[in-house]
Each structure stands twice: as structure tokens, then as C-alpha cells.
Write a structure and sequence with these properties.
heterodimer; A: 365 residues; mainly alpha; two-stranded antiparallel sheet; B: mainly alpha; ABC transporter involved in vitamin B12 uptake, BtuC
Chain lengths: 365, 316
């Protein structure tokens, strides 16, 4: 029986990852169009609306950038951990707990001046995120508990913590019976940079730059990458794996928590269960598409911000915004496939035992 | 009264009934994940596959008028969605964590998209609890064990079948070999890709059935977020169960209990807000993982040796 096999190309296709990205995006849009057609919607109309809502004019673009901020920070959080081969699937929970901490600070500091309160909320959010990641970090570092599961479970716990606070201790006394947190004081709103984009953009860019340089240029980052590629090598080189795991996961949580603080001061009027809006999960896709490199995270985050803003806009023509979630996953699938095909080609192989020819060629590659 | 808590009879029976119900649902999903992992494929897409099974099962049951056809559809859809992971993680050898997570996001998104028109539709078709005649009339035991949804008994049956196939058949041996040492399985003449794809598909079908259990039996109907993170608990349960059917079953009952309790805090007069109790399954998962890691610290890992490693014969 002749069957298709993947054979490593002697030279990868020119263009590499950007090409894979373009092809993957195109494939995702095509598959999304098929889905829309099946559902009885017009793909052209949907895509045109999504495009104009996200990139149509400066105001639209400023909304897209607003979305890109938490996506970039969540993506960065995932990417830092992944540099060391760790999976922080809990960015969602860390964002939520960061926002919760920031909301708590807003209650204490109701009378503080704007800049002081905003700074306290954003720093507090980061610390909240760090605390939410501390448990999984310590459990992974000292007793080897799988961090994927622990960080995930803490997402569910964070949602319920907010639900509990909103229903109980933090219930808005002026909510006329509505179950909601009290409105944030007005001086806690982040000022706008231009149009609808708030100052959080500058914070996100600065954090991306600093951490990106730390990972790629500092000895700390070098040790991180060594530990990520081989734990044994790292131990031999005298790198303390336990401390590295602890610091990396906590740093990852800090960045996600920062996103929570920025979301609350920048976009929210009060703490809600949906303050994170799935940014933590989308951040995983963003990081994966950026090949876990902080440098690529920003560009992917803007694209995903656009897909999400576009997704919101099509609700007006009666199309579910779940389309944008599906598109985000399809983009990742498309890019993974294209990425594999850049390095491998599909060949029809003879059955086992008759393929000395192709084996020898692979060895020489 | 024990420790100042009251245990009214009806409440205890109700709790144990629901524990078996939730436990059987999560058991199905966990069994499926365990099969995939025993073949060496970590599939973090359980949450997405369950969501697709839940919506697909409900839609087909409503459209055909038969819960059994809905169940069949859920299994097929679960298996089909799982093959996306099969294509990426097994055939293309992409990172299994990334591919699985993408499958969850995709599955949940697609389920929400598909379910838009079915949200709030009255669940006119659903599974009716089985009546085992005299058995069902026994006090306590009858209500708890013999008035369950047919899917609970299906879960028990599939558990036995899974155990038998994995441990007592040549095919099961080959499948486990693919998860322990893919190169060895390959040298023995088995198709590692074939075995792994099969395991992933079966895992998806089981997750799909677990999802349909939710939408056709436990809380009939479709609402966004009906799976509510239970797919992730199913993944954790496999680790808790050390990749063994019997321990997964035990864990499923334990987690069933934790999932059933939060809705019943009032009948037990428990302190604290029910919302705090709803954290219990997730807190329990973390506690169990930490306890497990402490206990098993110096023992060899129970995980299949080749779990998470892609296999490309050409690059061996």
C-alpha cells in the first residue's frame, strides 16, 4: 500500500514563518467562509463588516488597539513561561484575579487622586496576578505538580470568586437590586492616548520591550532558554531549576495580572465576571502564533484584536460573535499546518522495508 | 448529627444519586482521554469535544425525535472533532498541548455558533431514567443506583470494555505499546499513526457522549457554557487515576460528589455561600494533584512513557 509520509525538506521553503502565517490566515478565512455559508450568512458581508469595524478608520483602529493590549500581555505571559517549556494556561484566572485586586484597591482608595489610584490599581493588579500564579509555580517547582492542570483550575476558581464577591461582600448598595459590583471611581479611568486607545498601550509596549530584551539578551534569559531546551544541561551548568520555574511562572502571572489591572482601569466601569473576556485563552493562541517569542506577540495581538472587534460588530447583522472565536482557532490550525509544510513535504512512500532510497535521502538532509 | 452537620435522608439520597450522575458523565470523558493518552497522545481538547457533543447531541435528538440518535450523533461528532487533533498532533506531529488547546477553543466556539438557534429551545426529547423493576424499588439503593439515566449504565459498560480491550487483547497491547515506546510498536509491525488516530477518535467519541449526557440527561437543553470546565476536570482525573480504569472510576465518583454538592448546600444546612461551594471540584482537583505528587514523589511515573511525543518513523 502506498501511503503519504512527511519528509523533511533539504531546504525549508523560503519566506518561512511569515509565509506560513499568510497561508494559514487565508485558509482560516476560507474555512470560516464555508462555515458562514453553511449557516446561511454571506461571508463577504461578514468579512467586510469585520474589516471596517477593526481597520476601517482611525477610531476603529483605536478600538482594535485597545483589544490588542490585554491580548499582547496575555500572549507575553504565556510566551515567557513557554520559553522554559512551562505552560501557563491560567492567564485567564490571573487576569481576573489581577482585576479583582485592582477593584479592591479602588474601593480602599476611593478618595485618592487619579494618578495615585491608577498606579496603585495597576501595580496591585500585577501583584494579584503574581499571587494567583504563585501556588502552581511553587507546586511545580518543588513537588513537580503539572502546571497545566493547576493553572487551569484556578481560572474556574477566579471566575467564581468574582461571582461570590459581586453577589455578596462587594454587592453594589446603589445597584437597585442588580447584582453587580459598585461602579469604579471616575478618577480611576486611564486617560486616552488618541481616539479610543488608552495609555495602557504605552505600558504594554514598554513591558513587551523590557521582557523581550530580558529573554533574548540577558544572561537570565539565556539560562531560561537553556533550561527550556534541556533541564539536565541546565542543572549541569549550575542553573537552579526550582528557582527558575518559580520566578518564571510568577513573572508570567505578574504580566497577566498587569493586563487585568489595565483592563479594569482602561476599559471597565466596574468589576465583572467577563472583565477578561477570554483574553487569557486567546493569549495562548497569540503566543503560539508568535512562536513563543515576545517579539512576535505584538503583531499577532493586533491581528487578534481586529478579529475580536470585528466579531463584535457582526452581531448587528445577526451573526453570532462565536464566529470570531472559531476564526481565531482556525488561524492557529492553518498556521500550524502551513508551518509544518514549510519544513516537510508530503511524499507517497512504498510500504516499510522497501524505502531505503527515501530513508537515505532523509539522513543526508 | 455528625460534626454539627445534619444529614436528612432525602438530601443524602439526592446527593448520592447526583454524584453517580455527574460521576458517570465525567467518567465517560476521562475514559476517552485515558485511551488517547495510553496511546501516547495528550488531548487537551476534551472541553471542546464535550461542547460539540452536547450541542450536536441535543440538535440531532430534537430534529430526529430520538435521544439515541442524538447520542449516536454526539459520539460521531466528538470523534470527528477529535480527528482535527489527530491530523495536527499525530499526523503532522505538531505540539500536542498547542493543538489540544486550539481544539478546545475551536470546539467551544463552534458549539456556541451552532447552538445559537437552539438556545432556550424546550428539550422535548431527552433520556428517561431506566426502571429496573423490583431493583429500582429497593429503599436508598434503588433510587441511587437503579433509577439512573441509561447513559450511566452505558458508562459502566464502556469502562469494563475499555479495561478488557486495553489489558486483555492484542490490539490493546499494541495501543499501549504505541504510548510507551512508539519505536518498539513500529518495529513489531504495528502502525503507530493508525493506533494513535484510532485512540484519539475513540477518545473524542467518549467525550462527545459525555457532552450529550449533559444536554440530553443531566440538564436537558443547550445553553452557552454548559460544559463549564468539566472537560478540564476529566483531563485532571486521568492523572489522578494514574491511567488505570479502576482508579479513574473511583476518582469520577469522588468528583461527581464534589460537582453534586454545591447545588445542595441548603438541604445540608452547610455554612457559606453556595457560590463558594461551587469552587469545590476545582479546589479538589488541585488538592488531589498536590497530594498525589507528594505521595508518589519517589515512585516511577505512572504516565505512559511516550505521552506527548510525536512519532515520525522517518526521523527515528
Amino acid at each position: 500500500m502506498i501511503r503519504p509520509v512527511l519528509v523533511r525538506r533539504e531546504v525549508p521553503v523560503r519566506g518561512g514563518q511569515p509565509l506560513a502565517f499568510a497561508v494559514g490566515l487565508l485558509v482560516a478565512l476560507l474555512l470560516g467562509a464555508v462555515l458562514l455559508l453553511v449557516a446561511g450568512d454571506s461571508p463577504m458581508e461578514v468579512y467586510r463588516r469585520m474589516l471596517s469595524a477593526s481597520f476601517g478608520d482611525l477610531e476603529a483602529f483605536s478600538v482594535t488597539l485597545n483589544r490588542a493590549i490585554p491580548l499582547a500581555l496575555a500572549g507575553l505571559a504565556v510566551a515567557i513561561a513557554a520559553t522554559m517549556g512551562l505552560w501557563n494556561i491560567g492567564a485567564e484566572g490571573q487576569i481576573l484575579f489581577g482585576a479583582t485586586t485592582a477593584a479592591g484597591i479602588a474601593q480602599i482608595g476611593e478618595g485618592w487622586s487619579g494618578p495615585v489610584l491608577i498606579l496603585a490599581m495597576i501595580v496591585g493588579g500585577s501583584i494579584g496576578g503574581a499571587l494567583w500564579a504563585l501556588g502552581p509555580a511553587a507546586a511545580k517547582a518543588y513537588i513537580g505538580v503539572n502546571e497545566i492542570i493547576t493553572t487551569l483550575m484556578l481560572n474556574e476558581i477566579a471566575i467564581r470568586l468574582i461571582r461570590y464577591l459581586i453577589n455578596g461582600p462587594w454587592k453594589d448598595p446603589e445597584g437597585y437590586g442588580f447584582v453587580q459590583a459598585p461602579a469604579l471611581p471616575e478618577q480611576s479611568f486611564l486617560p486616552n492616548l488618541f481616539q479610543r486607545t488608552h495609555v495602557g498601550l504605552l505600558i504594554a509596549i514598554a513591558v513587551l520591550a523590557v521582557i523581550g530584551l530580558m529573554v533574548s539578551r540577558s544572561s537570565w534569559g539565556y539560562e531560561l532558554r537553556v533550561a527550556g531546551s534541556s533541564g539536565a544541561t541546565a542543572t549541569y551548568a549550575g542553573i537552579s531549576l526550582k528557582r527558575k520555574i518559580l520566578t518564571v511562572l510568577v513573572l508570567s502571572g505578574t504580566v497577566a495580572g498587569l493586563a487585568g489591572g489595565i483592563e479594569l482601569t482602561g476599559n471597565a466601569t466596574r468589576l465583572t465576571e467577563t472583565v477578561s473576556n477570554g483574553y487569557g485563552f486567546a493569549g495562548i493562541i497569540v503566543a503560539a502564533l508568535a512562536l513563543m517569542r515576545p517579539s512576535g506577540v505584538a503583531a499577532v495581538a493586533v491581528l487578534f484584536g481586529a478579529v475580536q472587534v470585528g466579531g463584535q460588530s457582526i452581531k448587528a447583522i445577526g451573526v453570532s460573535d462565536a464566529v470570531s472565536t472559531v476564526l481565531q482557532a482556525l488561524i492557529l490550525f492553518g498556521v500550524i499546518a502551513a508551518g509544518v509544510l514549510i519544513v516537510y513535504r508530503i511524499e507517497m512512500a512504498e510500504p516499510a522495508g522497501h524505502k531505503a532510497r527515501s530513508t537515505s535521502r532523509v539522513r543526508s538532509a | 448529627m455528625i460534626f454539627g452537620l445534619t444529614f436528612p435522608e432525602t438530601a443524602v439520597i439526592g446527593l448520592l444519586f447526583a454524584a453517580i450522575q455527574f460521576g458517570a458523565m465525567i467518567y465517560l470523558a476521562s475514559l476517552g482521554e485515558m485511551i488517547a493518552e495510553r496511546a501516547g497522545v495528550l488531548n487537551l481538547g476534551v472541553e471542546g469535544m464535550m461542547a460539540m457533543g452536547a450541542v450536536g447531541g441535543f440538535v440531532f435528538a430534537i430534529e430526529t425525535g430520538s435521544p439515541w440518535l442524538g447520542l449516536l450523533a454526539a459520539a460521531v461528532i466528538g470523534g470527528a472533532v477529535a480527528m482535527i487533533h489527530g491530523l495536527f498532533a499525530v499526523v503532522l506531529g505538531a505540539n500536542q498541548v498547542v493543538s489540544g488547546l486550539a481544539l478546545t477553543i475551536f470546539g467551544v466556539g463552534l458549539a456556541n455558533f451552532w447552538g445559537t438557534d437552539y438556545e432556550g429551545v424546550r428539550p422535548e426529547v431527552q433520556f428517561v431514567d431506566v426502571d429496573w423493576g423490583p431493583l429500582s424499588d429497593i429503599s436508598w439503593i434503588g433510587r441511587i443506583l437503579f433509577q439512573q439515566s441509561p447513559l450511566a449504565y452505558l458508562a459502566v459498560l464502556l469502562g469494563f470494555v475499555t479495561w478488557f480491550v486495553l489489558n486483555r487483547t492484542r490490539g490493546g497491547l499494541a495501543l499501549r505499546a504505541a504510548g510507551e515506546s512508539a519505536a518498539t510498536a513500529d518495529a513489531a509491525g504495528h502502525s503507530v499513526l493508525g493506533l494513535r488516530l484510532f485512540a484519539v477518535a475513540i477518545g473524542g467519541a467518549f467525550a462527545g457522549i459525555g457532552g450529550a449526557y449533559l444536554s440530553l440527561s443531566i440538564s436537558p437543553g443547550w445553553t452557552v457554557g454548559v460544559v463549564a470546565g468539566r472537560g478540564w476536570i476529566a483531563v485532571a482525573l486521568v492523572i489522578f487515576g494514574a491511567w488505570k480504569v479502576r482508579r479513574v472510576a473511583l476518582g469520577a465518583f469522588l468528583f461527581g460528589l464534589a460537582m453534586a454538592l454545591p447545588n445542595r448546600t441548603e438541604s445540608f444546612d452547610l455554612p457559606w455561600d453556595p457560590i463558594l461551594w461551587s469552587m469545590l471540584p476545582y479546589v479538589l482537583t488541585i488538592a488531589v494533584m498536590i497530594a498525589g505528587a507528594l505521595v508518589l514523589r519517589n515512585r516511577p511515573p505512572a504516565a505512559p512513557a511516550a505521552l506527548g511525543l510525536p512519532f515520525r518513523r522517518e526521523e527515528r
